[in-house]
Backbone:
């Protein structure tokens, strides 16, 4: 924090200067996320289009999307599931389940075995070959995601991963069909760009079914 | 934090080979045509982000007010409908379990996590009453109500903000352009994203609450925190308060800290970092 706000740590407490420094930093962060989205587009535009076609094909074949993540990424998994399940009465919808939203199963697994088996165990119980496993991680190193993708691959599912930094251990997995990387060193900017990635994927899937998503 | 990562460090060989080969296969023409949709999708994100940068002073003002409430012992209560319910949960985890090591935990809850109460209230009184009822039970005057409302499904969030404001809470609303135009004045701080696309609005909201979290810590540390430097600070306990809090005397003055993790008594010297006692010396 000190390196981000050097002025603030020099000792003098002038409220007006603190506010000015906060303002400058806020504008800088907005520029960072704008630049990061541009970088994600530059490196992943074709991959996003291709992945959306595969997702649509899976849904056409009766597949379901099973999404998972830890912490803030758990809320992204829930958001993605809600996007597919219901965007309004006139928008095409698809079956999707947020594995990280089932508090009873998650706490049971964490308590009885350990957090590393959370999503893999759920996929072993729920996953079918036609399904899609969609996992999000800011680090790309979460053990429970790595195990989940391997389990999904064994079950014949399509696998999609989203990670930050340089991709982490997820970039070394052989069990991922698609990996989208948001190359930043800020966990917050990574999450913001990851949100755009899965939102755009959801938009493209709806477009594959000949519809425009709400609001576009 | 790891060192800066350049895009060149991530070679295409780290991405599954099936994707790479498919891009050069028979479907390349189709993929290229579809890719323009991707470009358009990203372009739609630009103007609302630039607009937020222009309104950064609104965000700073909200963060400063929130820091004041936390410093006064308040907690953050977040709520939203639909996709925004996931943001309410995300905000709560940001404050309770910061991603930056050493930042103190601040009290925050999401009303959306209590599915039993939510569905019980919704079944009896309607979805529009759930947050208002939960706030009536859980809110204290020093608290902050953070309501997130996007699109048309917002009656419950607005009712919650009204209840919170009447109870003396600081109210912060994260909304879209439509709400900003039609409902202004129902929150102390209104942070509206100028977009009609609910997904774009959500993406900017994520940046907004990440920055709110960061700035709250900046303002709190500027205001009072003696124990928020790089190393832990020793202090003598001069009083034990409710809720596992204590007042300590340090070489730089007195500070209220959490003693939830240690068994501290008055007269003990404790080691404190970022407002949390970590050891009795």
Residues:
């Amino acid at each position: 924090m000190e390196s981000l706000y050097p002025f603030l740590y020099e000792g003098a407490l002038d409220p007006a200067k603190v506010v000015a420094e906060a303002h400058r930093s806020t504008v800088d962060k907005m520029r960072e996320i704008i630049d990061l989205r541009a970088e994600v587009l530059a490196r992943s535009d074709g991959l996003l289009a291709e992945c959306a076609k595969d997702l649509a094909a899976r849904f056409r074949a009766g597949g379901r999307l099973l999404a998972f993540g830890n912490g803030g990424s758990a809320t992204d998994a829930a958001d993605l599931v809600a996007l597919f399940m219901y965007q309004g009465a006139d928008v095409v919808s698809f079956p999707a389940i947020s594995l990280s939203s089932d508090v009873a199963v998650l706490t049971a697994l964490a308590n009885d075995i350990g957090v590393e088996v959370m999503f893999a165990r759920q996929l072993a119980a729920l996953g079918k070959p036609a399904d899609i496993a969609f996992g999000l991680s800011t680090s790309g190193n979460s053990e429970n995601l790595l195990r989940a993708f391997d389990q999904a691959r064994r079950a014949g599912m399509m696998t999609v991963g989203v990670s930050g930094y340089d991709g982490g251990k997820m970039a070394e997995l052989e069990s991922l069909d698609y990996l989208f990387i948001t190359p930043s060193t800020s966990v917050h900017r990574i999450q913001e760009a990851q949100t755009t990635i899965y939102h755009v994927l959801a938009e493209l899937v709806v477009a594959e079914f000949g519809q425009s998503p709400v609001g576009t | 934090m790891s060192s800066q990562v350049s895009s060149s460090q991530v070679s295409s060989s780290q991405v599954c080979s099936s994707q790479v080969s498919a891009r050069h296969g028979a479907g390349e023409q189709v993929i290229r045509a579809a890719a323009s949709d991707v470009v358009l999708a990203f372009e739609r994100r630009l103007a609302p982000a630039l607009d937020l940068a222009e309104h950064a002073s609104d965000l700073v003002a909200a963060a400063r007010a929130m820091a004041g409430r936390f410093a006064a012992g308040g907690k953050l209560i977040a709520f939203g409908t639909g996709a925004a319910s996931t943001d309410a949960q995300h905000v709560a985890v940001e404050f309770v379990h910061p991603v930056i090591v050493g930042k103190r935990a601040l009290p925050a809850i999401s009303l959306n996590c209590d599915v039993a109460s939510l569905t019980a209230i919704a079944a009896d009184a309607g979805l529009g009453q759930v947050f208002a009822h939960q706030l009536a039970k859980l809110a204290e005057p020093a608290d902050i109500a953070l309501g997130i409302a996007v699109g048309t499904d917002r009656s419950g969030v607005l009712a919650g903000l009204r209840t919170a404001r009447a109870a003396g809470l600081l109210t912060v609303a994260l909304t879209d352009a439509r709400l900003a135009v039609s409902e202004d004045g129902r929150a102390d701080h209104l942070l509206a994203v100028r977009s009609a696309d609910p997904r774009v609005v959500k993406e900017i909201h994520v940046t907004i609450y990440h920055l709110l979290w960061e700035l709250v810590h900046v303002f709190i540390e500027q205001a009072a925190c003696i124990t928020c430097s790089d190393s832990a600070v020793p202090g003598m306990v001069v009083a034990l308060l409710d809720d596992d809090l204590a007042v300590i005397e340090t070489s730089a003055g007195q500070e209220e800290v959490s003693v939830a993790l240690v068994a501290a008594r008055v007269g003990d010297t404790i080691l404190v970092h970022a407002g949390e006692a970590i050891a009795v010396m």
Q: What stands out?
A: Chain B has two domains: 48-223, 233-280.
